[in-house]
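REVIEWER CHECKLIST
Item 1: Sequence provided? yes
Item 2: Single chain? yes
Item 3: Sequence as submitted:
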Amino acid sequence: MHIVTIVGNRYSGKSALCEQWTGAKFTQSYVTTLQLTRYHLPLMILHDTPSIERLIADDCYVYSDLMVLMANEDNVPDNWYNDISSSYPTVPWILILNGAGHFKRRRRWALHRDIRVFQLDLSTDFNVSETLVKLREYLDELPSDSLELSNMTEYMFQFIPSTC
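Item 4: Structure as written out by the authors:
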């Protein structure tokens, strides 16, 4: 089981992508994510993070096997990548571009950092399921012991209610 954490700016499509990957239809409505939301999919747990970094616990990054940066604008530099990768330099990244644009600056930025890039369009459902397939293939390439048993046990105990 791999833990994948999705980060990005407001309105980039993080929650909409997680919802579509779990079978929901795309919706134009927007609700701000205020806390970490977990989605359980085969082979992975997705952490959908709020776009306000101070609302995210560092634990969500510590246990991540993969960071996914979601973007719907062609702007660089990216503060999410800069802040997180400086504290967790060994965690691999993927960039998911949401929209029909060319994203030339983002693609060049990712190329210089050896980050894989996928493009989809949540509003048209273009490449949404294909990106999930590619994400799973990428996770299969990661070392099988990327999350040690002791770390997984510690991770799970954070979310199991204790009874006294």
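Item 5: Key structural point noted by reviewer: The chain has one domain: 10-141.
Item 6: Recommendation: ____
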